[in-house]
Design a protein that fits this description.
Radius of gyration: 22 Å
Mean pLDDT: 86
Oligomer: single chain
Structural class: mainly alpha
Distance between the termini: 56 Å
Amino acid sequence: MQTELPNIVTLAAERFRGAAWTGHLPLLENVFFSLVIVLVLSIIAYAASRSRALVPASRLQNAVELIVEGVDDFICGVLGRNGRRFLPFIGTLFIYILCMNLSGLIPLMKSSTTSWSTTLALAICVFTYVQYAAVKELGLLGYIDHLLGRPRGIIAFSVFIPVLMLFMHIITELIRPISLSLRLRSNIWGDDTLLAVLSSFGIKGVPLLVFSSFIVIVAAVVQAVVFCLLTTIYFSLVLTHEEKIE
């Protein structure tokens, strides 16, 4: 029973089996489909911004602006108005992850987010940017103070509690990219595996396949939203209270 739908890379590897270069195809499969999504999104972004107007003159510009406004409202709803500076990063993450999640429904394509290497790379980008934003916002000493649990008064003189808080914060920060990446990868891999198994049933499995496809689309959107919501929350945790309520 197949657990993965055929795609253009696996078909090429099968067609040219025995050739020296086909041995590298499995390693490059997820990178290839990730770059395809990058290329498609770049073309759409260029086409939408090529002739920008205050009043959208094309449906494409109108659609892109609608998506951007929705993501902006979502981020600023959590981080406040100053959260807009994180819009390019989180917004790009959302659109990129969503398109990769849905690409598995396109014939001969594959969802790159079924690979942990892809989702872990995205989670590491989030982890790195959050640490950078924390140091920039709080300063190095302020961030260390944050990791120590902001000890004040008598607590600051008790070595045990600040050290315990530091240990817990470090473990939490290191676990976040792992949990963030595994959550996305596992859900998308499970959805794609379900479609592959149902497709192996032939004609009898078509009704279930169609129904499951709608469920997979919903799950793809939800997982992209969850990934970006958690990312937004991570930024919120390192911003000062005054910064968030402005």
